[in-house]
## 1
Amino acid sequence: MRRLGDLHMDSADNLAAVEKDSNGAPDYRNAIALYLDFLKKLPEIPADRVLYQLARAYEQGGELETALKTLDGW
């Protein structure tokens, strides 16, 4: 799940310069959904990288407050 989330992040990063959603921000929703699913289903696995990527997906998608809250702790 984490790797699939990473792939969605890469895809959104690559398309960010070309395709944007209606808000003008890259679409990171798939990556966010996969990272959240990972955190819920596998709470026993250290998730610092997942939390960082989740915060980055929120930030890149224009959700700055949510990104900060994610970095402050899950």
## 2
Amino acid sequence: MTPENCPNCGADVPRGAKACPECGSDDQTGWSEKATTDHLGLPDDEFDYDEFVKRELGAKPAGPPRVRWYWWVALAAILLAFLIPLILRR
């Protein structure tokens, strides 16, 4: 099957052509499935995603975010601000 664009050089290939008019690649030298995806920079079949994550993001896994102590103090202050008027009304 003739591709619309040559996978090697990117030139337009006429329909039914046996080879690329620019670089001369054909089904045996450059129109195979491997040649059409070589220039994309896709990972290999043996790509290890877990190793990639460790290398890029660090070795320790990210846990849930911790709530800092001052947020607990702010929450307590807000609750007291609403509860004290209710208690004093009685």
## 3
Amino acid sequence: MAELATAVLFSAGLDSAVLVADEARRGRVHPLYVSVGLAWEAAEIAMAERLLSAPVYVGRVGVLQQLQFTMRDVYPSTHWAVRGLPPAYDTPDEDVYLTGRNLVLLAKAGTWCAEHRVPRIVLGPLAGNPFPDATPDFFAASARALSLGLAIPIDVETPLATMRKSEVIRRGIALGVPLELTMSCMAPKGGRHCGRCSKCRERIDAFREAGVADPTAYQR
């Protein structure tokens, strides 16, 4: 039987790092990073290269595939994600919504998969994700559209969709993921989390809820 090949939408964030390690237990993984022109992408890519050299990934995970799909011609230059000025620490998740985010990622990833004959894409939304492009109906419709439009069966799966971030942290520790080499920040500097954006707050709260010491380097 041929080995299962899976493309993982990978940002070097905590969730996608654990997802790659989990998928690597089942078959060959191709990590895809889709750059769209956001302020934090260079920091994520740098962290991704470090992260993927960790023992938990070596031998089962391919090299990072860096894809481009600009949104700079859609998001205005004043957009907070382009300027690198994210909403404040205690703001709700809805304030960091990026219009079309998963739609764009899946369009690019699906096309890459069709070219490389990879029949499965996974990505890492968690339980409680409030965005319209993170629902089961959206992902099912995306799989149908990609399969029809690219003339190759492509599955789209979200294995972490019933989990909280604290549960993902515990799974990552069990798998041996170096969580200190993950990046979940919208205003990183010098490879360190800002400690002031809502993504950092979400990360800090999740380590606390998991009952695990937070190994993250924060600027504050």
